[in-house]
């Protein structure tokens, strides 16, 4: 990993840590945020995944205002850090934690 890639990775980690802490306070069933990125194509290649404890928690989040709130929070946080995401919602997906055997946990 190049030095510039490490700087980008640290920036992403810092921004998403703040977003995660904010989201943990406001939404039941939310667990964490993770990401994947091709550094040579950042920020267009950035993929953000919000992980939930269960399908029910994910569905409740998506049915309410959570999706819009998190999308706006991510967009604003990256903007404040000097990174422009044209449409943050296209970079975000919402998933459910998987058990050790690779199947989604059901509760």
Any overview of this molecule?
The chain is an alpha+beta fold and 107 residues long. The chain has one domain (3-96): ANL, C-terminal domain (GMP Synthetase, Chain A, domain 3, 2-Layer Sandwich), CATH 3.30.300. It is built from three helices and three strands; from the N terminus they run αββααβ. A three-stranded mixed sheet has the order 1-2-3. α1 (3-26) packs antiparallel against α3 (66-80). It is globular, with a radius of gyration of 14 Å. The relative contact order is 0.18. The model has no long low-confidence stretch (mean pLDDT 91).
Can you lay out the helices and strands and say which pair or pack?
Elements lengths: L2 H24 L3 E7 L10 E6 L2 H9 L2 H15 L11 E5 L11
Parallel strand pairs: 2-3
Antiparallel strand pairs: 1-2
Give a short summary of the structure.
The chain has 107 residues and is α+β, with helices and mostly antiparallel strands. The longest helix has 24 residues, at 3-26.
If helices are DSSP runs of H or I spanning 4 or more residues, what is the number of helices? Answer: 3
Largest sheet: 3 strands, mixed
Q: Characterize the quaternary organization of these chains.
A: single chain
- Number of folding domains? 1
Strand content: 15-25%
Coarse shape: globular
List SSEs in N-to-C order. HEEHHE
Radius of gyration from the CA trace? Answer: 14 Å
Helix content: 40-55%
Mean pLDDT: 91
Distance between the termini: 40 Å
Organism: Photobacterium sp. (strain ATCC 43367)
Protein name: Fis family transcriptional regulator
Features:
107 residues; 3-stranded mixed beta sheet; GMP Synthetase, Chain A, domain 3; Fis family transcriptional regulator; alpha+beta; single chain
């Amino acid at each position: 990993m190049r030095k510039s890639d490490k700087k980008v990775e640290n920036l992403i980690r810092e921004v998403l840590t703040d977003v995660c802490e904010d989201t943990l306070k406001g939404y039941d069933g939310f667990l964490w945020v993770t990401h994947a990125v091709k550094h040579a194509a950042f920020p267009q290649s950035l993929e953000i995944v919000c992980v939930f404890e269960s399908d029910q928690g994910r569905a409740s989040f998506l049915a309410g205002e959570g999706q819009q709130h998190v999308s706006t929070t991510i967009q604003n946080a990256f903007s404040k850090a000097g990174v422009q995401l044209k449409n943050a919602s296209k970079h975000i997906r919402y998933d459910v934690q998987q058990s050790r055997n690779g199947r989604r946990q059901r509760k």
